[in-house]
Write a structure and sequence with these properties.
514 residues, alpha/beta, Conserved hypothetical protein from pyrococcus furiosus pfu- 392566-001, ParB domain, 5-stranded mixed sheet, elongated, Chromosome_partition/occlusion, ParB/Sulfiredoxin_sf
C-alpha cells in the first residue's frame, strides 16, 4: 500500500486539544519515554517562567502498557522536569499536571516516530541530538517497512523529511556517527565539539584523531577552540609523515623509526607548524639540537650539537658581560660620586629629593646608601637624578661636551667659562685625608728642568700646591702644560687642568719628587 509519511506524522499536530480532552494527572504517575534522547536544557529558566505565568501548553501522554494507571510522555519531557523542580521546592499547586491523553494509534515504532516528529517541530536541537534523531528515525522506518508499510522512493529522503534536515547534512551526520573516534564522540554528544570540526575529524583515520586529541590536551586547549581548518592542517602533516622512509634503514622501504615522535611533535606544536620540517629525516633538520622529538638514531650528533650550542651560549654570555662591565663600572662610579657629594652637603635622601622636586619613596632611604657603597649595581640601575635619567643619557651628554671641547657646566649655563673652571667650596681636612693623590712636577718649558713647580693629582684632577696649601689662586696650571698631565698613570691617560678648590693640605713644595 502507498504511504504518505508527512501526512501521517502531521496528524500529531492536528489532534483535538479542546478543554474536555485535558485531564489533570499527578506528576508522580507521569513517566519519561525511555526512547527520548533529547537533552533537557535550561530547566531552571522554564520552571521560573511556569511559576510566573503558569503552564502554557499541556503535556501529551499515552497509557503505559506495562503499568496500568501510569502514563508515558509523548511530548513535554522538559515541561515535566520543570514542574517536578517546582514540586520538589514545595510548590504543591503544580503537582496536578494538565495532560492530553492520546489514543493508541499504530505500532510502538509508529508512536515513537510521531514523538520524534513532534519534537522536531517544537525544540531547538544540537547537532548531536539531530544525529541521534536521524539514526533512530532510520531504524524505525526500516522497522515499519518490515511490518508491511511501503515507502516509495529512497529511504534517506523519508529520513530527511521526518527530521527536517537536508540530504547533505544527513551525509555529514552519518560520517560523524560512524567514523568519529570515541574520545571525540563523547565531547560531540555533550555539545562541546561543533559539527564542522567533528566532521573534519571523522574524515581522518582514527589513529590520527587520537594524535590530535593528545595534542589538544597537551596544550591545555579547549575543544571549543579547535576548528575545522586546524584539523585539516593536522591531517595534511600527519599524512605526509606516514610516507616518510628511514634513510638509515637496512632496506630502502624501511619506515621511519621516529614516526611516533614526529606525529606527537606535529600536534604538540602550533597548529600551523611547518609540516615539511617533519616530512624529512631529522639528520637534515636545523632544529635538531633543540628538538625533544629528535630521532634516537642521531643521539650522538644531537649531543655534540647541544654541547656546541651550550658553549656558544656561554661565550655569548661572557661577551655580553664584558660589554656591560664598563657601563656598570661607570654607573657605580657615578653613584659613589653622588654619595660623596650628598655626604659633603649633609643632605638626607628625602631632603635631596625635595631639593630637586623628585618624589620620595621610603624604600629610597635604604636603596640610596646601598648604591652609593657599590651594592646592587646593574646595567639597568637607575641614577639618582630623576627617573628618566639613564646611563645612556649621561654618556650622550658627556660625549657632547667632549665633541664641543667644553664642560657640562658651560653647556648647562653654570659658568661662562667654556672650560668650566669653578671655585668650589673649601674641603675639610677629613675629606682631604681620604683622598689619594700623587705629587707631580710641572716643567715650565724645554730649558732648565728645575724651572717649574709642584702640583698634585687628586682623583684625576691637577691642583697647584699654592692653591691646596691655602695661598691665593695665582699659581695656576696653564693649558700649555697639559701634555705633562697626559703622562700620568691613569687608565684613560687624560687629565683635566683646572683651578682647584681652596683647602688646607700639608704639602712641602721643597720635598723631592715621589
Amino acid at each position: 500500500m502507498g504511504f504518505d509519511l508527512s501526512a501521517m506524522l502531521k496528524d500529531v499536530s492536528n489532534l483535538d486539544t479542546s478543554r474536555d480532552q485535558i485531564e489533570y494527572i499527578d506528576i508522580d504517575l507521569i513517566d519519561q519515554d525511555p526512547n527520548n534522547f533529547y537533552q533537557l536544557s535550561r530547566v531552571d529558566e522554564l520552571a521560573a517562567n511556569i511559576e510566573l505565568l503558569g503552564l502554557q501548553q499541556p503535556i501529551r501522554v499515552r497509557d503505559n502498557p506495562d503499568q496500568p494507571g501510569r502514563v508515558i510522555i509523548v511530548s513535554g519531557h522538559r515541561r515535566r522536569a520543570a514542574l517536578q523542580l517546582l514540586v520538589d521546592e514545595g510548590k504543591e499547586r503544580f503537582r496536578e499536571v494538565p495532560c492530553i491523553r492520546e489514543k493508541e494509534a499504530g505500532s510502538a515504532a509508529l508512536q515513537e516516530l510521531r514523538l520524534i516528529y513532534a519534537n522536531a517541530d517544537t525544540r531547538t536541537m544540537t547537532s548531536a541530538e539531530i544525529s541521534k534523531q536521524v539514526e533512530r528515525v532510520e531504524a524505525l522506518l526500516y522497522q515499519l517497512k518490515e511490518e508491511g508499510m511501503e515507502f516509495p522512493g529512497r529511504m534517506r529522503d523519508h529520513v530527511a523529511e521526518a527530521c527536517k534536515v537536508s540530504q547533505s547534512k544527513l551525509a555529514r551526520l552519518k560520517v560523524i556517527r560512524e567514523k568519529l573516534a570515541p574520545e571525540w564522540k563523547s565531547l560531540y554528544e555533550d555539545g562541546k565539539l561543533n559539527e564542522s570540526t567533528a566532521y573534519a575529524l571523522a574524515k581522518i583515520p582514527a589513529a590520527h584523531q587520537s594524535y590530535v586529541f593528545e595534542g589538544v590536551k597537551g596544550k591545555n586547549q579547549t575543544v571549543g577552540q579547535l576548528y575545522q581548518g586546524q584539523v585539516e592542517n593536522y591531517e595534511k602533516k600527519l599524512a605526509a609523515v606516514d610516507q616518510l622512509i628511514c634513510k638509515r634503514g637496512a632496506r630502502k622501504d624501511f619506515p621511519c623509526s621516529n614516526l611516533e615522535n614526529k606525529r606527537r611533535k606535529i600536534v604538540a606544536e602550533s597548529s600551523w607548524y611547518d609540516a615539511s620540517a617533519c616530512s624529512k629525516c631529522c639528520d637534515k633538520c636545523d632544529q635538531l639540537a633543540k628538538c625533544k622529538y629528535a630521532c634516537p638514531m642521531l643521539a650522538g650528533k644531537v649531543r655534540k650539537l647541544r654541547e656546541s650550542a651550550k658553549a656558544q651560549r656561554q661565550h655569548e654570555k661572557l661577551a655580553k658581560e664584558e660589554r656591560e662591565r664598563p657601563v656598570i663600572e661607570q654607573i657605580t662610579q657615578l653613584w659613589q660620586r653622588f654619595g660623596d657629594a650628598r655626604a659633603a652637603a649633609g643632605l638626607s635622601v628625602k631632603a635631596y629629593h625635595k631639593a630637586i622636586n623628585m618624589y620620595h619613596y621610603n624604600a629610597d632611604d635604604q636603596e640610596y646608601p646601598e648604591r652609593e657603597s657599590g651594592k646592587g649595581i646593574g646595567l639597568n640601575t637607575r641614577l639618582p637624578y630623576g627617573y628618566t635619567m639613564s646611563i645612556e643619557t649621561i654618556q650622550r651628554l658627556i660625549g657632547a661636551a667632549d665633541a664641543l671641547g667644553c664642560s657640562l657646566d658651560y653647556l648647562f649655563g653654570r659658568t661662562d667659562d667654556p672650560h668650566g673652571r669653578l671655585y668650589g667650596p673649601p674641603l675639610t681636612q677629613k675629606q682631604i685625608d681620604k683622598m689619594h693623590f700623587d705629587k707631580v712636577w710641572l716643567s715650565y718649558g724645554d730649558g732648565d728642568p728645575d724651572d717649574g713647580e709642584w702640583a698634585v693629582v687628586i682623583d684625576g684632577w691637577i691642583y697647584d700646591i699654592a692653591t691646596l696649601d691655602g695661598a691665593d689662586f695665582a699659581g695656576t696650571v696653564m693649558d700649555e702644560f697639559r701634555h705633562i698631565a697626559e703622562k700620568l698613570d691613569r687608565p684613560s691617560g687624560k687629565y683635566t687642568v683646572h683651578y682647584g678648590p681652596r683647602s688646607k693640605l700639608a704639602v712641602d713644595p721643597k720635598d723631592g719628587e715621589d
